[in-house]
## 1
Amino acid sequence: MRRFWGFVVKEFLHIFRDYRTLLILFGIPAVQLILFGFVITNEIKDARFAVLDLSMDETTRQLTEKIVSSGYFQLDRNLHTYDEIDEAFCEGDIRLVVVFEPDFARRLEKEKVAHVQLIGDASDPNSASILVSYASGILNNYLLSMNSEAIPLQIHPETRMMYNQELKGVFMFVPGLMAMLLMLISALMTSLSITREKELGTMELLLASPLKPLQIVLGKVFPYVFLAFIDACIIILLGWSVFGVPIRGSVGLLLFESFLFISMALSLGILISCITNSQQLAMMISLVALMLPTILLSGFIFPIENMPKILQWFCHIMPPKYFITIIKSIMLMGNGLYFIWKETLILFGFTLFFILLSIKKFKIRLTSS
Amino acid sequence: MSPQHHGTTAPQHHGTLPPDDAIIHVSDLVKKFGSFVANDHLTFDVKRGEIFGFLGANGAGKTTAIRILCGLSYPTSGELLVAGYNVYTQREKIKKNIGYMSQKFSLYDDLTVFENIRFYAAIYGLSKKEIYHRAGNLMKKLELEEARNKLIREIPLGWKQKLAFSVAIIHDPKIVFLDEPTGGVDPITRRQFWDMIYEAARSGITVFVTTHYMDEAEYCDRVCIMVDGRIAALDTPMDLRETFHAKTMNDVFLKLARAKTPEGI
């Protein structure tokens, strides 16, 4: 144990002596979060929308008011016929049209079903789908608050492909950013710190010392577990204090899942450093092979449901995807382990897989070098 | 391989028995990389307390052999005992009893002199008190006391090399392996470095050193010359010069190397 702590102390010295690393570790999360946060919140604030109210009753009036008072939308105009919809979009300012069918309130009362059509401007598909889901979320909330036993409102099929209950917050980016940054810090930093020892030739010395290979790897990883964990807390805290991202579920579970994801990313970093010998290559692999898929294929920015089938398959082997699902589930929906045990198990499986693969690669290296 | 092959108790294997004073025993060591044979049936013993030189051109198989002895690489076949322990089954015990210094001086540029010493002392399991005690003595001996808190990248190469060697033996190992320790250093510093090696040997540490500087071979007690993965000669420098009718070790080496080259070239 004395050997191990001596090693860990050295690793911390490396990190704290290199202020650039420190800047990456703690500066980037804060900057990224604030950047992403404001960009995304600006996008959906005060989106102009139009209403085509063919019913003109108390319920539709209240619903319209709900949408306006949510803060995301601003009522631009009232339409009177379907023909005006196209015109309204073409004029440019309008990003969403809400259509209430005739006799809306009466149907809701009698048939328990009434139709609303949400029409988004799909020339900008991402914000369109976000707006549509916000609007439908607001409508659903309203109807739930009416305490009906069955949910009477059905969203019109035309908008259903864009319907995504989970998109219900401005808070998508916090889980995504967390996945991205934890991946970056954990995988990139560990792979760099191990390959650096290889480049310097000090790895030989460590391996010739009584330190066991496992101790070397754990010693390398330990500081980053610690630092990545602090980062996770910074992101959650910033998200909560600056952007009001809620933590509806258990904080303990959230931290546990973050820890699991960090372990996964670290074992991936170890694997990368097992198959490369130079820092440069390790960096390339981490950035190109990890960062881009994390951003593009994890559902962080682009919804997985809209991707071609082949890419969707790729998405399923991206660990961040599961982490994002977990985080969203805990933070935004307040779910417990019961709802996310499958994703948790998958992350655990990834971690185990990467560690076993690293051990195998390491043994091969000893016999063939 | 039974685990009780250690110390000087005669192991019951079919190879040659190690002599009582052998601290390293190598019998029929073979290391292959695919079809390339890096170490071709090496057999030799290193005696307790001697300075054993491993000579050869680049690519002759010196580094491969030293890496195997340090447990950094697995042999393909052969019987090896280092400090009385079996290379296949008792690598952890071997590692506690050896020191290793590689071609690159293996100190951390971004740590201070003291931090480097403390780190290596710690991974060899010295206690905190012991670490401070030995680090103090070491820095006094190397006249590095004023540089205690200087980063390694700020001190001259010669000092780095001496420090690297001192750090490699800070835990009083039985054997220290030096893999081309004098590469890229000027002749005067090299001479000083060899003084340190002598001192270590006098204190009872066996020194196993590889080099391709033939003049350094003269400083060794015994020299093993490698050519193309085989042992071409093994004796004291004086006897080698006599046997090959040569004035210097360099001539000995050239004669050996030429003998291995196919005729007509």
## 2
Amino acid sequence: MSECINRRDFLKMGGAAVVGGAAVTAGCASAGPAAVSAGFKAALPRAKGPRLVIVGGGTSGLTIAKHAKKEYPKFDIVLVEKRDMYSSCFSSNLWYAGLINLEFLADHSFLDAARNNHYIYFNATATGLDRAGRKLITSEGEIDYDFLVVAPGISYDYNRIGVKDEDTIDALRTGYPGGFISPTEHVTIRRKVQEFEGGLFLQYVPNGNYRCLPGPYERACMIASHIKKNKLKGKVLVLDANPEITIKKDGFHAAFKELYNGIVEYKPGSAITGVDLAKKTVKTEFDSYRFEDASIYPGVRASTLIEHLGLMDAKSPQKEALISQLKYNYIGDERVYVTGDSRPHPYSKSANTANTEGRYVAKVLAARAQGKDITWYSPRTVCYSMVNANPPEAISVDAGYVLNKEGTAVGGFSPDTKLFEKRDAAKGRGTLEWARGMYRAMFEG
Amino acid sequence: MHRRRFVTLCGGSVAMLAAGLRGVRAEPFVDFPKVRLVDAAGAPLKAAALATNDAYVFHYPLRSFPCFLINLRKPAGEPREMTSEALAYTWPGAVGTQKNIVSYSAVCTHELSYPSKEGSEIRYAAEASPLSGKPGMIVCCAHDSIFDPAAGAPRLHGEARDPLLPVRLEYDPAEDAIYATGLAGTWLLDRFLKSYRRQLIAEYGAGVYKEPVGATSAAVLLNTYSGGAVSTC
């Protein structure tokens, strides 16, 4: 079964980002970077061609590193990544229900990716940017660049749930992580699920264009599967800041009703406005809920690195980058690009989007390095969501995008966008093979 | 073909890719030893008896490299020039008395999904599928790619940039027999061996997975081969 997503759905999905980022000319540059010198050069081989430096070894950065080299072999590419061990955020929900193991997520080496695709993996943290001097500052020294791509992903924004003090933010990060950024969050959430003995497990869904729109609902299904399988006297409370499930709503509603009746309780329009961690309670406008355990996904903004490097659009509600929607360069600087989930586009912030977008941006970079131009084409959001673990069954969406009438910004879903909301085992298997394909796309040559 | 020559050929292609060569390169079909297709019991496969509702899986030119044999419900298109990001070649068209038997690699040219005995994301959908909306397409549900096997398997939808790699067939009308004789280039074969090396060693044994398939290759319906765990998109 399939149906089209309409423009209204599109606006709901990315509304905040559309408002803030659609018209790049309305944007406004933020303050400049904090650090402009590391005082020493990074220990790297001499560049043998135009040096393309990429910050971030997630889906976007890894894809661009691979494909920029294929598109323009003269590029000398350095991937700057702060982690020394990869583990994917995508597919991590499946671990909580025992459908995969940690090896599935983490048996992928930055070293192999670099060797297979002929670039340098540089284990360092980006700390500053000197655009005038074309230098990236890192914890391991300065790197001169001819082209720079910044793909650092997202940061959490706890302001969205009424939490502003650092003590509470730290307590939430540590005790009830959102689980949509780092592998250590995934380990904690898995432990929580395995140690859950009953009561109420709270899963919060933020508003805005948050990373992985179906992710919180999928996680609720995986935790509910665990509760059901182990006959625990507990349930998952899905508090949703949005008025309705944000994507694949029919498929998720069917799962909640048909698979988890009495185990999943879904409450739309329930934005958290404050927390009392001493009482393990969250407050909404009209109610408060006491939980036994929780994963509180507070909402997202572009990575704080975008702001620190001076690449943020100060008018963006999610503090996303001030870039061209069609070519991804920072406005006024065709040497610096921002991609992946720090982009202002109203795309789904998903791995498949970042991967297909990355292939396009690699072509943009190759073209510009040769004084050429290319025509925009859409990324693709192919996204599976597992809704049952016993047996594995999933639903999916296959979405593309089109430009607005003026051809200046992304204006909606493409006509060939389809939803597949009738769960089945074939899509359950497809969920796993989709992920394996993503790993191959990033790490193999 | 001598085995050493065979392995060298594959290795050479890997080296070309590793050197970062980019752009379309014209490449003729690569000859591999002629292999007769047989059924699961080893009896010669008869073209007239081929089913039309599913693809057959056989292995060629190596023991581990899966290919589709498809009996289309209508004659295929004429031979045509195919150009992709990887290479250019002439698709030789179909064989058989009705010109409706075609063969392609069963490895998706996007991110290499292929049929295993545990299941398959890539399949021939004789009837219209939810994704393609029209009959007679090869669909890969891992990332929603669609290919048209009646026209040389160009990509119609999805992120694949290359057509499915055709296998050259030869038809013997006297015996109604089908033979495989070559592949349109080896880049996909090389990539497959490299990508799945760990799994192939575990499944076939070290070195065994890259041995030539032999004088015959068994063609089995995909739904049988993959234990019924075949995609439905």
## 3
Amino acid sequence: MKFWRLPLDSEVHSIPVGRVQIIENRCKGCGFCIEFCPNACLKESKRFNAKGYHPPELIFQAEDCVNCGLCSLICPEFAIFTELQEAKKITEDDIRKVTTRYSRKDKRFAKR
Amino acid sequence: MKRRLRELQPFDKEAEERAIELGHGLHPDDKYLKPGRIPHIWCPGCGLGVVLTCFIGALRQKQFGVDECAVVSGIGCTGRVAGYLDMDTYHTTHGRAIPFATGLALAKPDTHVAVFSGDGDLFAIGGNHLIHAARRNVNLKVICVNNFNFGMTGGQAGPTTPLDAKTSTTPLGNAEPGFNLPYLAHASGAIYVARWTTFHPRQLVHSIGESFDRTGFTFIEVIAPCPTGYGRPNKLGSGLEEMRYYRDMSEIRYGADPADAEIKLRGKILVGTFEAADRPDFMETYRTQVIARAQAGGKGKGRAA
């Protein structure tokens, strides 16, 4: 799938940018948020929390979060939630990013 | 009706200040939870927290204040939900969540009474109460978290344990087939029957919200991983691996016949809304028949002596 121009209604729509908040000491390391994040924003960190579990942390491309809130819904421990940071305008760069991501060139998605 | 949310008044003030100091602020769901009770005692990988989060999500979606909804739960791991929610919650004796909730629903018809309990509580010792509440069509929202065993007491075989499943009391495999809960609820007369797994949190929020809109006995079964009690003897792996199993093996089929929804060990799980019917609930029939007749009799029309 390839877009040859910006969609005509791109000014009407926007991309929400979320910020993931992790309350690390509540985490019990079940890994649900890491596994089921639709944009694969999270990974297991190497450090320990107060209980001795590995809490999740954001991977390098942290702006991938689109504030969908699935992590806060699927977390059994009330340890993670997302906040809306801004509603970004759609640019050609975003279109390119989306087309490469779902065409399995992105390693994070090819793995699944 | 006036809707209000109670202000957050933590009794563990220090824990709140510590959390704010760490730069996180408190979780948005915390205003529905008793402060100082989280972290809860459920095992890592347990699905009960997901169901509780989804229940809170449905309350938020419907904009219910804490005084508009009451939660009754029985005994077991799921029964602890009553201790965590910061609203009118009742932790009743084993299996008697439904009788208690029936009385509450009849005394306070404006309140949404949710029964939040496990399969061992609702179907083993409380089985009779459930089928009769469904027959009467009392206005209750039953959420049954099914983890296929008695988790809190050490993973014994329960009424929902599938055939051939290993538990601590059936080390050579269970000789009895388990209950098909949606089918039982449907046959007893529930007006809304749904089943979801913890892998379907969005659908579960929607389903709980839908059940709040209906007047009558609604039944939602949620299949939750129990890595300690059920996953370990059956080699199902951690909670995450059970969630992957739900992702791969569950099939969403709305309006399916609940008779087909039987669960086998490592088999397919049929999920969806199986039934959404309308039937006058107990309160309505009581009002239209008994109370109307009594009032007519009070005016001296054909009253028996």
